[in-house]
């Protein structure tokens, strides 16, 4: 757009009229609020002023706080062009006072330097909550981007602004925008406001009307200015959403300060709550049950009714109790109790809940204990399945003392008894029978699942693999990326884990061949390939060093440590592993472990595909705290971080003080020929013809099977 020229004669006229207009000020000041065609906040409304809003409104012109720079670098609008659009971000911290309230309008402060007429505009406003606190920059387009506002709530539609600016000559004034409908602001996110101004007339110069900005909120606004293109047209164009500076047709201003703003708000209206109703029929095998007691209970609140001859019941819930969570029960002589937990109602809701009860025929109770190698087992699942009806199942889970109790209603049948407990061999017994009406004691003796040959298990490996839940993984720390040896929510991770010589005593003097970890896959259905590297070294320390001066934990240098895995390509096909599974990392060749020191393993995982932060995680050993630290990033690898100025201190991309992950090591006899130990440098074979089997033993050329030669696997 070409810069418009000021008409010198009109400028002289303005100067002449200034003194005349100043005489009218006393009269005008009583009409300021009405002059904008809007009404200020009512007595029950509240206001939130950002920055020094009140001070500026009451003061004289402060040129230093009006937008500076080129003529188009101004928000919320510029009267020098016919069409403008702008977006502002207000942070949730700025708006904390309005959290949970209804926003009714907003105001901006301007100074009329030399405008003597009305400049009509049609104004539209959209509002929405966003996570972002800044406008995004696109490196490829080399431009900042506006936010889409198609999904925003339109709070002001085609408001006709037609104020005569002559009433504000050489004065500060307020541009007040009362919303057509209030916006309910949660306070949980930041607020994005989009405003468009469209008209046919323009000011004579860019400085006729100047707006004030918030000196405490830089880079929180962007604007579009044009005589030819509306913001709505630009939104539909191929250029959207990128702001590419000034041009003949459209000019953009980025990195603007937030305009000086005042919000008007009110308390959120409380919805009317109406009584609710629950009705239904109580029956057994299709026959109504008369006299069944149906109860809704929530704390001290209780509703109770008895079913009629047709089995029908009705409960009326008062309005003041509708928002409570209830337990629904039904009891009748000769029938099993019926229960539904977490029962809720909506305002004015009528629910139908038919209740089907089961007749008590020959009740019997079986109790007992479940032990494994003499130790009572908590969490063991005891299940009875009817021999002639696989759908008839009774089951219980053992308590902390290993005891269980099962009420067998149809005790005239025979059953298959099966007991499962992670870390123990399954127990099964056929043709289990009961005496109707008599109680039975049945104690279950199980045996532990033997550890695989030549292995060490740290933590409840088998139990967590079989029965572990989301309560047992690192997500308990609050962040799923705070995990070891890796997480799949970032493309590049690194971790270091310390294992004490006491834990590994059984493996002293042996050679490590493999390390396993167990994970829980909640819902990661994709493929997340990773390149895995592992370093192993013996260290004196049992804990990570802490720098008191820096106030930070430190990683160990690992670049000179023996390389156990040079680059394993992990397929990451997790869609076949929903539930609990094992991550198996076989060493390229055995690594000798002396047993005289603690063991430090360093892992790096690098890929491109990532899953949601809560979809996948590893189980940790609660008995071994502060034995692991992790690094996570989508920007640089752990190796690159190790070369940075931050190393070896943890930063915002690191998590210290993690528990040791549940781990299983596999080992073989120590290797003395051409295999480096964890006390030496990087592993290198001294003879190009030297070959080893997967147990780390030197073999001849006539050996058949998989061999390791020069650090790589071959089929011989």
Overview features:
single chain, mainly beta, Immunoglobulin-like, six-stranded antiparallel beta sheet, 7 helices, 7% helix
What does this structure look like?
- It is a single chain.
- It contains seven helices and 49 strands.
- The radius of gyration is 37 Å and the shape is flat.
- It has 716 residues and is mainly β.
- The N terminus is likely disordered.
- It has five domains: 260 residues, no CATH class; 81 residues, Carboxypeptidase-like, regulatory domain (Immunoglobulin-like, Sandwich); 83 residues, Immunoglobulin-like; 214 residues, no CATH class; 32 residues, no CATH class.
- Strands 7-4-9-2-11-13 form a six-stranded antiparallel β-sheet, with no helix packed on it. A six-stranded antiparallel β-sheet has the order 39-36-41-34-43-44, with no helix packed on it.
Question: What topology emerges from the helices and strands here?
Answer:
Layout: H1 8-22, H2 25-28, H3 32-35, E1 46-49, H4 53-58, E2 83-90, E3 101-112, E4 121-130, E5 137-138, E6 143-145, E7 153-161, E8 172-185, E9 190-198, E10 209-211, E11 221-226, H5 231-236, E12 242-243, E13 251-256, E14 261-267, E15 276-284, E16 287-288, E17 293-298, E18 301-306, E19 312-317, E20 326-331, E21 338-343, E22 350-352, E23 355-356, E24 364-372, E25 375-376, E26 381-386, E27 389-397, E28 403-408, E29 415-420, E30 427-432, E31 440-441, E32 444-446, E33 455-458, H6 461-467, E34 492-499, E35 510-521, E36 530-539, E37 546-547, E38 552-553, E39 563-570, E40 579-593, E41 598-606, E42 616-618, E43 628-633, H7 638-642, E44 654-658, E45 663-669, E46 691-692, E47 698-699, E48 706-709, E49 712-715
Parallel strand pairs: 15-22, 15-23, 24-31, 24-32
Antiparallel strand pairs: 1-14, 2-9, 2-11, 3-8, 3-10, 3-14, 4-7, 4-9, 5-6, 6-12, 11-13, 15-16, 15-19, 17-18, 17-20, 20-21, 24-25, 24-28, 26-27, 26-29, 29-30, 33-45, 34-41, 34-43, 35-40, 35-42, 35-45, 36-39, 36-41, 37-38, 43-44, 46-47, 46-48, 48-49
């Amino acid at each position: 757009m070409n810069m418009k020229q000021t008409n010198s004669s009109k400028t002289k006229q303005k100067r002449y009229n200034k003194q005349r207009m100043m005489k009218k000020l006393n009269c005008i000041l009583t009409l300021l609020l009405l002059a904008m065609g809007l009404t200020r906040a009512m007595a029950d409304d509240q206001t939130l002023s950002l920055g020094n809003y009140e001070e500026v409104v009451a003061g004289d012109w402060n040129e230093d706080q009006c937008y500076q720079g080129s003529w188009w670098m101004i928000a919320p609008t510029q009267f020098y062009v016919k069409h403008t659009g702008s977006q502002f971000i207000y942070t949730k911290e700025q708006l904390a006072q309005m959290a949970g309230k209804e926003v009714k309008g907003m105001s901006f402060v301007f100074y009329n330097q030399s405008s003597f007429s009305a400049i009509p505009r049609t104004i539209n406003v959209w509002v929405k909550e966003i996570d972002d606190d800044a406008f995004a920059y696109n490196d490829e387009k080399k431009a900042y981007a506006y936010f889409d506002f198609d999904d925003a709530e339109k709070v002001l539609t085609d408001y006709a602004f037609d104020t005569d600016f002559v009433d504000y000559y050489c004065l500060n004034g307020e541009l007040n925008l009362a919303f057509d409908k209030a916006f309910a602001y949660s306070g949980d996110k930041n607020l994005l406001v989009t405003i468009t101004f469209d008209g046919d007339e323009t000011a004579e110069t860019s400085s006729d009307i100047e707006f004030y900005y918030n000196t405490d909120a830089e880079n929180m606004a962007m604007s579009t200015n044009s005589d030819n293109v509306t913001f709505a047209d630009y939104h539909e164009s191929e250029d959207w959403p990128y702001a590419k500076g000034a041009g003949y047709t459209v000019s953009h201003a980025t990195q603007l300060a937030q305009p000086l703003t005042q919000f008007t708000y009110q308390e959120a209206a409380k919805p009317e709550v109406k009584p609710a109703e629950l009705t239904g029929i109580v029956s057994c095998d299709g026959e109504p049950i008369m006299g069944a007691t149906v109860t809704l209970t929530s704390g001290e609140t209780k509703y109770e009714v008895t079913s009629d001859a047709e089995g029908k019941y009705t409960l009326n819930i008062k309005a003041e109790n509708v928002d409570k969570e209830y337990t629904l029960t039904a009891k009748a002589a000769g029938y099993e109790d019926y229960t539904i937990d977490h029962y809720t109602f909506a305002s004015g809701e009528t629910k139908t809940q038919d209740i089907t009860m089961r007749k008590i025929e020959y009740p019997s109770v079986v109790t007992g204990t479940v032990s494994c190698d003499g130790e009572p087992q908590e969490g063991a699942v005891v299940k009875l399945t009817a021999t002639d009806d696989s759908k008839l199942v009774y089951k219980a889970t053992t308590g902390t003392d290993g005891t269980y109790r099962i009420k067998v209603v149809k005790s005239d049948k025979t059953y298959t008894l099966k007991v499962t407990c992670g870390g123990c061999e399954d127990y099964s017994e056929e043709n289990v029978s009961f005496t109707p009406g008599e109680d039975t004691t049945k104690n279950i003796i199980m045996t532990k699942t033997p550890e695989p040959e030549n292995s060490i298990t740290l933590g409840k490996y088998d139990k967590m693999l079989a029965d572990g839940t989301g309560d047992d993984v690192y997500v308990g720390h609050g962040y799923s990326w705070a995990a070891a040896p890796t997480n799949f929510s970032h493309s590049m991770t690194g971790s270091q884990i310390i294992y004490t010589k006491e834990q590994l005593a059984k493996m002293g003097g042996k050679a490590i061949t493999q390390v396993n970890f167990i994970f829980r896959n909640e819902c990661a259905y994709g493929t997340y390939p990773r390149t895995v590297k592992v370093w192993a070294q013996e260290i004196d320390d049992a804990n990570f060093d802490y720098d008191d001066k820096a106030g930070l934990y430190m990683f160990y240098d690992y670049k000179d440590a023996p390389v156990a895995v040079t680059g394993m390509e992990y397929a990451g096909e997790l869609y076949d592993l929903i539930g609990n599974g094992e991550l198996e990392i076989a060493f390229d060749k055995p690594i000798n472990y002396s047993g005289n020191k603690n063991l430090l393993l360093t892992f790096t995982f690098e890929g491109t595909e990532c899953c949601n932060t809560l979809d996948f995680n590893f189980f940790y050993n609660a008995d071994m705290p502060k034995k692991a630290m992790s690094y996570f990033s989508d920007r640089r690898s752990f190796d690159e971080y190790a070369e940075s100025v931050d190393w070896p201190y943890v930063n915002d991309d690191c998590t210290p003080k993690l528990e040791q992950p549940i781990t299983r090591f596999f080992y073989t006899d120590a290797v003395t020929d051409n295999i480096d130990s964890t006390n030496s440098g990087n592993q290198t074979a001294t003879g190009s013809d030297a070959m080893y089997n997967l147990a780390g033993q030197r073999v001849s050329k006539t050996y058949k099977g998989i061999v390791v030669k020069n650090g790589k696997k071959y089929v011989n």
